[in-house]
Design a protein that fits this description.
This protein is mainly alpha-helical. Helix content is 76%, strand content 0%. The chain has one domain.
């Protein structure tokens, strides 16, 4: 199997990342709503705990759609996918440090971590669009953290919107050419 075939498998199985982005976007949306109308603590707990379940929920949705929910054993992209998946939980320590220093940096810090996590997806999926998503999350996280540090929930809303829009973009980009 060559790289292009392996990337096509990833795009096909995961619908260009659309289902994962939809699940993640909905989690960020719920977290932003909690942060806006309830408390920062509930928003943080919801997103951190919910984030653990992004991949299992993505698989559940794919199965409910009658689709395969993972790459076959021995697929050449399985190792990279697993390595990429662990970047976010390991970098939550950086997010925790930023949040302990300034509570309102939670979302901006997490946006930067999640954005950088999407950079290897460009290769994994063979989709340049993940570079766009990464750039939006990183730039927005930096901008909000530096220029709007008095807003707790703004980054949650921006990230949710970006992820939900990218679910549509990713799905469209992964459609087979006719």
């Amino acid at each position: 199997m060559n790289i292009a075939e392996a990337q096509r498998d990833v795009r096909t199985v995961f619908l260009g990342g659309a289902v994962g982005q939809l699940v993640a976007g909905l989690l960020w949306l719920g977290s932003a709503a909690l942060g806006t109308w309830f408390s920062p603590r509930s928003a943080i707990e919801f997103l951190v705990i919910g984030g653990i379940f992004i991949f299992p929920l993505t698989q559940l949705v794919l199965r409910a759609m009658g689709r395969p929910a993972s790459l076959p054993p021995g697929h050449p992209m399985n190792g990279l996918a697993m390595q990429v998946a662990f970047t976010v939980p390991l970098n939550l320590l950086v997010v925790a440090g930023a949040t302990m220093f300034r509570l309102n940096w939670f979302y901006p810090a997490l946006m930067i971590v999640v954005g950088t996590h999407y950079l290897p997806f460009i290769f994994l999926y063979g989709m340049w669009q993940f570079g766009l998503l990464a750039g939006v999350l990183i730039a927005a996280g930096l901008t909000i953290g530096v220029y709007m540090p008095h807003s707790f929930s703004l980054g949650g809303w921006v990230a949710a919107f970006a992820l939900l829009v990218f679910a549509l973009i990713g799905r469209q980009a992964a459609r087979p050419s006719r």
